[in-house]
Amino acid sequence: MAKIAVLIPCYNEELTVEKVVKDFRKYLPMASIYVYDNNSTDRTYELAQNAGAIVRKEPRQGKGNVVKSMFRDIDADVYIMVDGDDTYPASEVEKLVEPVLNGSADMVIGDRLTNGTYFEENKRGFHGFGNNLVKGLINLLFNSDVKDIMTGYRAYSKKFVKLMPVMSEGFQIETEMTIFSLVYGMKIVEVPITYQDRPEGSESKLNTFRDGFKVLVTLFDLFKDYRPFIFFTLVSLVFLILGLAIGIPVVLEFMSTNFITKVPSAVLAASLCIISIFSFMIGIVLDAIKNQTRLMFELKVNQFYQNEKRR
What we know:
The chain is an alpha/beta fold. The chain has eleven helices and seven strands. The protein has a seven-stranded mixed sheet with strand order 3-2-1-4-6-5-7, sandwiched between helices.
């Protein structure tokens, strides 16, 4: 029988964590349910423990840090990750588990957006805008068609969990996991799920503007790391266009008079063109390094499968 683990990262969720644990115990009675308490100042730890969860503390603040510890500590065949705020229905968990169990997915995304329930239930207007913005940018930059990037309801294979290098510390973790899956060819399946807003008195820990900005910075940073040739070619083109815009009038003046009166413009134009050339060369070098990194990752995947066969 497959070993299933339910992972619930929590910070001040005393109003909901007990219900979340009991709901998942009802629909996945054979699963191990883990709650990682991220420095809560309320009764989250106590209530999760009373509900029957395995409760551990994560002192490093931030959801990404919690996920990193969960992935390192817990051994299972299927991992379900869900927020502790009772916004995702445990009754639909089988839809997420099945694709991992049958081998058709390494990451199953619980899609809140396609059926419209997120937009009906969510009362924070800019969250919807931010979801669509991040989704559009990722699909554009990584040539994909993922429907819901920021959902907190997902299932993972053991391969994904043990090979995913978690670098984010905060709410950027969902963006990082999605981009990692797209870049390294992990099998992604999306299943529509029902979303319900937080109960009265429960507050979101996501700061729309501060955390939204961090997500965008992470997105472009990962684009630079995973698509360095495209990134630095675009940077090179920007500097080249600026250099030509400033330099062409200087060249035309020299061709007609044999003199250069705009020396500062000439120096600036030449500098911008040199930066453009170096940016392009940096892109070529980093792209070669990226290809070697991909090769090393594929070797790690092969090693993972060999180790699993020995068990």
